[in-house]
């Protein structure tokens, strides 16, 4: 699609401007919207708001929900079927892990530079600890990417390897001799961390995605089993569906296939497995499912921050900076936990009685995405 | 009667209403039987890949409830039953649909009595 210059929209109300910004951000971050879609949608919304003379929120509803409806209606199913709740493919997930840890490590090195000077001492404990963190992050990223790719057994193996690597790393770190081996200028370490970030960004996500996507199965007797296993993995891994519900869909699909005359395969009857998994998971409970998953992740992070804070407090000479940083982080996480719990237990506006969708949205309960041949 | 290729969007839009309508006439039913009922009524373009997601959505919205039946040497069968909420929605949507089709008819009506009959070669649409 030819991309024209981004239109400059002038919103008369500050609240409308905020609403438009929220829609644009949600489309970009949550739905990996194609270039130009947000501009197109906001231009339409701007016209409507201008013509009606009413606030955008009154006319079009909550920006988060509106972005979801736009994504459902205007982003092709095939595209949406391959991304997770954060709008990322498995490869992009892995890249995001390395980018996050690279930036965090660069900031940490900069902090050390400011507090301890240009030259940073390197000893066996720091070498083993750094190796442990790097390996732990790589394996954690692989665990998450494999899980969102719907390859659950692989994800379990990566999770076990992560725990093993961290425990081994901590054990080795406590055994290696103390003392300095050599010193390194802090900028070199910062540049090394940034090189990791650049390397992660430059590495093609499509190659990573290929690593995480199972190869197509040949048309033999095991074909349908592989298709159903893949569907189960996608429903539970990518779409955060509870096991019982996912298994119910599998049983129903198997029953349908058994009732179908002829020897049609599951892929003939139900189509592309990723698209079918998306269709089954797009109901009004989707937001709550993802919020619940997010809540569990936040619980683990809160536990980690609590342990860090206890460690700070039990130190006879605690660092005021880290004490303050850990306390603030823990308080923020508790606040996030409360909000995520609320979100995971309350019905959302995408329920049948919710606000009208974007222009032309179908009525309650109508599948919102354009159907494609399958 | 068969739905033509251009009617896919109509079929999808009306599918939840049709499913509620069928379930309202039966104590309970299951996916394959519902598909047959739709086909018997002339809505032949619906595939399993569209039907089950629509039923799942109706279930999540509380319009239908599910019940598992015992399987005969295979996986158990999942039955759908319309709820009171589903009946209320059916009545509401039926009225809205009638008003909508009436409006469309009023806009597309022609006074020419010899208007062309439906195309004889209109065939069931290959898929959704």
Automatic annotation (TrEMBL), chain A:
This is Uncharacterized protein. Keywords: Membrane, Transmembrane, Transmembrane helix. The keyword Cell wall biogenesis/degradation does not apply. The chain crosses the membrane at residues 94-114, 126-145, 157-176, 182-201, 295-314, 320-338. Residues 345-374 are annotated as: Disordered. Residues 348-374 have a biased composition (Low complexity). The keyword Manganese does not apply.
UniProtKB/TrEMBL annotation, chain B:
It comes from Streptomyces lasiicapitis. SUPFAM superfamilies: Winged helix' DNA-binding domain. Residues 19-91 form the Transcription regulator PadR N-terminal domain. This is PadR family transcriptional regulator. Pfam families: PadR. Residues 108-128 are annotated as: Disordered.
């Amino acid at each position: 699609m030819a991309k024209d210059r981004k239109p400059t929209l002038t919103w008369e109300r500050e609240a409308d401007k905020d609403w438009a910004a929220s829609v644009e951000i949600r489309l970009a971050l949550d739905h990996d919207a194609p270039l130009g879609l947000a501009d197109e949608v906001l231009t339409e919304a701007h016209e409507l708001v201008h013509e009606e003379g009413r606030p955008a929120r009154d006319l079009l509803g909550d920006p988060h929900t509106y972005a979801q409806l736009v994504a459902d209606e205007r982003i092709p199913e095939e595209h949406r079927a391959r991304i997770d709740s954060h709008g990322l493919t498995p490869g992009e997930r892995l890249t995001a892990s390395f980018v996050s840890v690279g930036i965090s490590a660069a900031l940490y090195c900069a902090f050390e530079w400011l507090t301890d000077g240009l030259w940073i001492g390197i000893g066996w404990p720091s070498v083993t600890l750094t190796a442990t963190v790097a390996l732990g992050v790589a394996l954690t990223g692989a665990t998450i990417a494999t899980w969102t790719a719907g390859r659950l057994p692989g994800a379990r193996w990566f999770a076990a390897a992560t725990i093993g690597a961290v425990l081994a790393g901590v054990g080795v770190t406590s055994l290696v001799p103390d003392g300095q081996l050599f010193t390194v200028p802090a900028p070199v370490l910062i540049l090394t961390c940034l090189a990791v970030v650049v390397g992660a960004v430059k590495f093609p996500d499509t190659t990573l995605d290929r690593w995480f996507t199972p190869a197509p199965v040949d048309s033999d007797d095991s074909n349908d089993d592989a298709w159903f296993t893949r569907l189960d993995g996608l429903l539970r891994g990518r779409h955060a569906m509870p096991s019982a519900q996912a298994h119910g869909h599998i049983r129903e699909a198997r029953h349908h296939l058994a009732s179908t005359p002829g020897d049609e395969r599951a892929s003939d009857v139900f189509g592309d497995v990723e698209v079918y998994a998306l269709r089954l998971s797009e109901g009004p409970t989707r937001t709550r499912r993802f919020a619940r998953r997010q809540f569990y992740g936040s619980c683990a992070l809160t536990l980690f921050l609590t342990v860090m804070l206890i460690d700070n407090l039990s130190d006879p000479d605690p660092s005021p900076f880290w004490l303050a940083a850990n306390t603030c982080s823990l308080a923020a996480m508790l606040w996030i936990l409360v909000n995520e719990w609320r979100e995971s237990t309350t019905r959302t506006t995408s329920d049948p009685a919710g606000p009208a969708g974007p222009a032309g949205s179908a009525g309650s309960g109508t599948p919102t995405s354009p159907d494609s041949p399958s | 009667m068969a739905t033509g290729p251009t009617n896919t969007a109509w079929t999808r839009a009306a599918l939840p209403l049709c499913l509620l309508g069928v379930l309202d006439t039966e104590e309970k039913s299951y996916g394959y039987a519902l598909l047959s009922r739709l086909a018997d009524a002339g809505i032949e373009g619906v595939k399993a890949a569209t039907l089950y997601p629509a039923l799942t959505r109706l279930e999540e919205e509380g319009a239908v409830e599910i019940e598992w039946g015992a399987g005969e040497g295979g996986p158990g069968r999942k039955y759908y039953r319309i709820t009171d909420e589903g009946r209320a929605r059916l009545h509401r949507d039926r009225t809205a649909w009638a008003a909508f089709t009436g409006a469309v008819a009023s806009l597309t009506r022609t006074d020419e009595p010899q208007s062309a009959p439906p195309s004889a070669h209109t065939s069931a649409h290959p898929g959704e």
